[in-house]
Amino acid sequence: MRIKFCIHTISSMVNMEAQEIQLKIAFIFLLINSVLTQQQVRLSSDSEWSALLELRSSLGLRAKDWPKKTDPCIEWNGVKCQNGRVVGLTISGLSRTRRGRLNPRFAVDSLPKFTLLESFNSSGFSLPGSIPDWFGQSLGALRVLDLRSCSITGLIPSTLGMLSSLSVLNLSQNLLSGSIPSSFSTLRNLTILDLSSNYLSGPIPTGFGSISGLQFLNLSYNSLTASIPVQLGKLSRLVELDIGFNSLSGSLPEELGGLRSLQKMLVGNNGLEGPLPANLFSNLTQLRYVVLGRNNFDGDLTNVLWSNPQLGFLDVSSNNFTGVLPDLATIFNASTSFNFSNNLFYGNLSFRYGDFHLVDLTLFFIYFLFCLLNIFFITMKLLKLVMLFIFLLYL
């Protein structure tokens, strides 16, 4: 009987402990659910609810993404809310109705009603038409504006320079034309600026040098002209500079040596000329990716560029560089890719192609053989002169 009593007592204690653990788990789940419910506050603004319905209609969005009978802050794809107010809209990747697909337009006139809107992302979502001036006048809280690959046409409105809180501006892969607004130089909080793959013309604004926090600047694949502003050298936090595939002229400014954080420099496919500044690369110790190809540079390649241990990709092709090609095996590691083709280098090749990831020395060999042929013909001429001289001595 005592044994049975002990077993019953132990069993009761185990059951009590199990129930206590279950209660604790249930309490934790209730607490988590309460926190999540607090985070998912319903939309509290009637004007913003109306604005969302207007946007849904004007863009022709399908009901499965923005269903009318549900709360936008909780159920609608791409809608981000904070304290019951809309702070972020992402229409990228959303589906359109058949009517919306047949007649896409830059129809976002209800956006100014979202007075706390910090982010608008429509990347890859077709919005044919021009950017309205009110974008910069009525969206003062905006921090992220991503309109890449939206089939946007026309000029970039200068009023975008009024978006003082903006940190990311991406207008790439569109059909924008005209010049880059000089008002962009007032965007002091900007960290990413991408205007690549458009039809922009004119010079790079000198005021870009005053955007001290800029980290990524991509102006490639446009029709920009004039020289590279020396003021860009003030961007000490810049990590990536891509101004390739334009019509820029002049020399590469020595002031770019001030880009101490730079890891990628792409200035290829322009009309840049002259020798590389001797001190340009001495401070650019973080460089990993350099494209100088398809310009009109001449002179020797700086030894500082050769000796950078961080360098993983170097393209200096299709220029007029001269001088002795260094011993590549002692400079670059096995993961390095480089292209020296279509230049006037000379020297000995003391490495195996298998030692490197990618090697292109096209026309270096042609020039090398040309030099050998010149030496051969000069030697033959000298030999003929020596034989003639000896022949005359015996007469």
Structural write-up:
There is one protein chain. With 395 residues, this protein is an alpha/beta fold. Helix content is 26%, strand content 19%. It has a domain of 252 residues: Ribonuclease Inhibitor (Leucine-rich repeat, LRR (right-handed beta-alpha superhelix)). The chain has a 13-stranded mixed β-sheet. Strands 13-15-17-19-21 form a five-stranded parallel β-sheet. Helix 4 links the parallel strand 2 and strand 3. The longest helix has 38 residues.
What is the CATH class name of the domain at 42-293?
Alpha Beta
- What overall form do the CA principal axes indicate? elongated
Find the CATH superfamily of the domain at 42-293: Ribonuclease Inhibitor
The CATH architecture of the domain at 42-293 can be given as: Alpha-Beta Horseshoe
Strand-pairing-aware structural class: alpha/beta
What is the CA-based Rg, rounded? 33 Å
Count of runs of 4 or more consecutive helical residues = 7
Strand order of the largest sheet: 1-2-3-4-6-8-10-12-14-16-18-20-22
Query: Could you give the distance between the termini?
Result: 143 Å
Bin the strand percentage: 15-25%
Helix content: 25-40%
**Number of DSSP E strands:** 22
Specify the biggest β-sheet.
Answer: 13 strands, mixed
Low-confidence parts = 1-10, 29-38, 352-359, 365-370
Order of helices and strands: HHHEEHEHEEEEEEEEEEEEEEHEEEEEH
On the 0-100 scale, what is the average pLDDT? 85
Q: Remind me, CATH topology of the domain at 42-293? A: Leucine-rich repeat, LRR (right-handed beta-alpha superhelix)
